[in-house]
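Entry for the shared binder. Reason: the reviewer on the internal report wants the predicted structure included alongside the sequence.
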Amino acid sequence: MRQVAAALEAGGFAARLAPTSAPGSASSLARTAAEQGAELVFACGGDGTINEVINGMLPGSATLGILPSGTANIFARELRIPLDPLRAARECARWSPRRIALGRATWSVAGNDGHAGESRYFLCVAGVGLDAYVIHKLSRDLANNFGVIAYGWEALRQVFRYPFPAISCQTEGRELRATFAVVQRSERYAGWLQMAPGSSVFDNQFTLCTFKSASRWRYFLYALAIVTRRHSRLRDVELLRTCNVSCSPADSSQRVYFELDGELAGMAPVTFELVPDALSVLVP
C-alpha cells in the first residue's frame, strides 16, 4: 500500500492512506473523507469494499477511484481497470471521470420500535435467494483464505441443504416466480461468469435473471448453462430488462436472504430501483 500511495503521489494525487479496521469501517472512512472535502476517494479492495465506500461517499460530489485487490473484482473488470492495484495506481492519472447510475435496495428491518426502513446502493449485482444464503453460511475466514474456491465449495454444499423457497418478483406490471433471482448492472457475475450478456454499468437499466426450478439437480444444469453462456435458452430461466424490481417470499413465513455486491445485506421483501447519474468514477 505504501508503493500504491507513492505511485498516486507521482501521478499528482495528494494521497492519504486510511486503512479499514473491520467490516463496515470503509463506509465511515469514505464519509469522513467526503465531509472533509476530498475530491477523489480511492477504494483499494474488492466489490464489497467498493460498495462500502460508495455508501459512505453518497450523497456527495467526490469521484470514486478503483484499485482492485479483492476476490471477484466485477466492477474493475467491467471498467477494464488493471487488476494489479499498483499498476492501476500508476495509470489512473490518465483516466477520466464518468457519471454512472447505481442500483439502490430498500427494505425494512425489525427493531425495538417496529420496522424501520433501510436503504443501500449497489454497483453491479444483487442476488435474492441461493447466493445470499451461501454468503450467510460461508465462514469469513474461509472466504478470506480461499476466495472464489471457498464460495464454490459452500455453494456446492448448500445446493443439497437449501430449501429453495419460492420468490415473487414484481416488475413492469408482471409477476415472475423463481427460486433464485439476480438483479444485475453488469454482464459479469462472481467475477467471470457472464450471466447478463449485454448489460453494462453505463446503462440505465437492470437485467433481472430468474431461475424458476426448485429441483436441486436442475441447479447443476443451471451452473453448466451459465458457464457455457446458454442459460437464456432454458425454458425455466428468464432474462428481463427493467428499472425497478420488488422481490418477496411467496410464503411470508419463509426467510429469503439477499446480497449486494457479494455481501449479505438483509432479508426480503426488498425493492431494487435504478438511480440515474448517481456517481462519478474514474475510468480508463
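Summary line for the report: The radius of gyration is 19 Å.
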